[in-house]
Design brief:
The protein is of the alpha+beta class. It is built from five helices and three strands, in the order H-H-E-H-H-E-E-H.
């Protein structure tokens, strides 16, 4: 719980989201936006907005209940920012 609190306080949401996506160790992640938000201690709307931006950049593909990773290298660069 303390680690989550420190992450929420000191890490940008895009960095935390990238880390969670990459930690799933699968090209297709079967988590809803709400489940990701709960994992990150954020609101679903915030996660959805960032995932949409990641999709616009070509890093992920979004479908109902799944996130497909398309560019793990780009996500890795975001995850390493902090």
């Amino acid at each position: 719980m303390i680690a989550l609190l420190e992450d929420v306080t000191f890490s940008a949401i895009d960095t935390r989201l990238s880390k969670v996506l990459l930690a799933e160790e699968s090209g297709i992640i079967t988590l809803t936006h709400q489940e990701l938000a709960t994992k990150l201690g954020s609101a679903r709307e915030v996660i959805s907005r960032h995932l949409k931006r990641f999709e616009a950049y070509g890093w992920v593909s979004l479908n109902r209940g799944t996130v497909t990773l398309l560019d793990t290298e780009a996500l890795g660069k975001i995850a390493d920012k902090h």
